[in-house]
Amino acid sequence: MGIEVGGLLGLIWLIILVWAIVKVAKSSAGGVAKLLWILALLCFPLVGLIIWLLMGPKG
């Protein structure tokens, strides 16, 4: 049962990460800023997502 719970949590995490990347790509931020945010989200998924939620582009 532990594998199924871990797999479900991993899937949820992947969905959240993809959502954040799509939000960054659709934001009004400049191209370089978008690239840096996406790289931060991919390289540091947990920390990058928290920082993006707090300080990322709005809109």
TrEMBL record:
Organism: Vreelandella songnenensis
UniProt keyword terms in alphabetical order: Cell membrane, Membrane, Transmembrane, Transmembrane helix
Transmembrane parts of this sequence: 6-24, 36-55
Record's bilayer topology term: Multi-pass membrane protein
Taxonomic superkingdom: Bacteria
Protein name: Phospholipase D-like protein
One of the record's GO cellular component terms: plasma membrane
Transmembrane is among the record's keywords: yes
Lineage of producing organism: Bacteria, Pseudomonadati, Pseudomonadota, Gammaproteobacteria, Oceanospirillales
Alphabetized InterPro entries for the sequence: CLS_N
Subcellular location: Cell membrane
Occurrences of domain Cardiolipin synthase N-terminal (ranges): 15-57
